[in-house]
Amino acid sequence: MPFTALVIVLSAVVICAGSALSVPHEPPLWMVLAVCVATYPVGTALLDLEVLAEVRDGWAGEWSVRLAVASAVTALLSLLVAPAGGEKGSHEERARAPHVRRSASCEHRSH
């Protein structure tokens, strides 16, 4: 049981880190769904390893491994989908964003 708890905790850390990495440049929903479908067999292959035999016996350990794999791949995908040069948002999003202009009185007070 302690090994299963360790795997669940490590999986939770991977899930949180993957979520934190994918939030700034979230991939489209269809990509996330494709990742979930594609990583299910990967999670199954990992759970078939003899090392994780104890983990695959319980649903919490099994699904924590599956979600950790999906989160890690989604985070990598979000880094690949991110705009080049570290720019936030796409060109279309920046074009639609309202431009804020300071009035002359605000600029005068700031000097």
Overview of the molecule:
α1 runs parallel beside α3 (59-81) and α2 (29-47) crosses α3 (59-81). This protein has one domain. With 111 residues, the chain is mainly alpha-helical. The protein is built from 5 helices and no strands.
In short:
This protein is mainly α and 111 residues long.
Topology at a glance:
Elements: H1 2-22, H2 29-47, H3 59-81, H4 91-96, H5 104-110
Uncertain segments are none
The biggest beta sheet, please?
Answer: none
Q: Helix share of residues?
A: 55-70%
* Average pLDDT rating: 79
**Molecular shape:** elongated
Strand content: under 5%
List the total number of helices: 5
By DSSP, the count of extended strands is 0
Q: Could you give the distance between the termini?
A: 65 Å
Determine Rg (CA atoms, Å): 21 Å
Structural category is mainly alpha
Run of helices and strands: HHHHH
Number of domains: 1
List keywords for this structure.
111 residues, mainly alpha, 5 helices, 0% strand
